[in-house]
Amino acid sequence: MILLKRSREKKKTTAHKFVPKKGNIIFFREKREIHLTGQITIETAVWFLKFIVQLNDDSVGVPVTVVLKSGGGDVFASLAIYAILKESVAPVRTLIKKAYSGAFIISQGGQERFITYSGSLEFHETIMAMYKNESGGAKDFLREYIFLSIINKKLYKIVGKRSSISDKKVCKFFEEKRRLNAKEALKYNLVDSIISHQRLRKINKGLIQ
């Protein structure tokens, strides 16, 4: 994994005034926000890494906010973005507006995890996608089953690490594709606070605590 640690001695740079949009990612450099919407792909992860590195180059002391409004996508891309957030030297705050499947996993990579009042999240077991693949023989089926089972265990571990949900219930939630609203997410310690996007921006600017 690429490390994002950089020298503390930064050159003075001027933030771009335009807002780059790459696929389903919108990068607000001045606001230090990355908005992830729509389907998560490998390309999403590549651009996400570039933007996180840029923000770490700008400042490692000012928080980065990742706004999630996505139904998920590629599990490997989602895990890669989760790892990128964990590697960031600049503190990362995730804000859930809609975080299903892989987007939910990404949300757990923030040092602080927020959700809007109308936000929701959804568990999704990767192995469910396997049954859509009818090609291949028994060996291929078994190989895929074992491989995806390992991936699912990784997802369970990520969620269970910071939540108040038992390991057994975590597995059950994934199997049921359980969807939670903001209050339920807070109850299970899947987020740290319920907040509006506007209020979080003021906190990031140091205007309020």
Describe the structure in brief.
The protein is α/β, with parallel strands linked by helices. It is built from seven helices and eight strands, in the order βββαβαβαβααβαβα. Helices cover 41% and strands 23% of the residues.
Q: What does this molecule look like?
A:
With 209 residues, the chain is an alpha/beta fold. It has one domain: 2-enoyl-CoA Hydratase, Chain A, domain 1 (Alpha-Beta Complex), CATH 3.90.226. The protein contains 7 helices and 8 strands. Strands 1, 2, 3, 4, 5, 6, 7 and 8 form an 8-stranded mixed sheet that branches. Helix 1 links the parallel strand 3 and strand 4 (64-73). Helix 1 (42-58) runs parallel beside helix 2.
What is the CATH fold-level name?
A: 2-enoyl-CoA Hydratase, Chain A, domain 1
Radius of gyration: 18 Å
Distance between the termini: 34 Å
Runs in which pLDDT lies below 50 for 5 or more consecutive residues are 7-18
Q: Indicate the CATH architecture.
A: Alpha-Beta Complex
> What is the beta-strand fraction?
15-25%
Task: Name the CATH class.
Answer: Alpha Beta
CATH superfamily: 2-enoyl-CoA Hydratase, Chain A, domain 1
Determine the mean pLDDT: 86
Q: What is the helix/strand order?
A: EEEHEHEHEHHEHEH
Helix content: 40-55%
Number of strand elements: 8
Largest sheet: 8 strands, mixed
How many helical elements?
Answer: 7
Q: What is the molecular shape?
A: globular
Q: Structural class given helices, strands, pairing?
A: alpha/beta
- Give the total of domains: 1
